[in-house]
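To: structure subgroup
Subject: Chain for Friday's discussion

All,

I'm putting the inputs and outputs inline so they're searchable in the archive.
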Amino acid sequence: MTKASKNKFLVPLIGFLAGISNGLMGAGGGIIIVYGMNYTLGEALSDKKDVFANALCVMLPVSAVSCICYAIRGNLPINGIGIYSIPAILGGLVGGILLGKIKTGALKKLFAAIVIYSGILLIIR
């Protein structure tokens, strides 16, 4: 089986798993997308930073659908939205600006450190 034929199967599977992760936990889909895109499209991308940028574009609609599902079920606390979303939007703007200035190797290490730190926190809490 060639890499191209594997990718035809893997890309939708990775997207599906990312959607399930996001729907179940409200997060995690972006991590799956980043690793999946790096694995399946890494050679085709001229800049590895494109993986992170593309992952964000994929996660926006996935997160919107998850958010709507949470809201329909009554699991969306309205009082916390402004407290978290406004600083997160500002942080997203800053991160988008910094993406072009940070070296790819440093970005990958930062991403891995955040994933590991988050995983440890989930285990010990």
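Points worth raising on Friday:
The chain has a mean pLDDT of 80.
The radius of gyration is 16 Å.

D.
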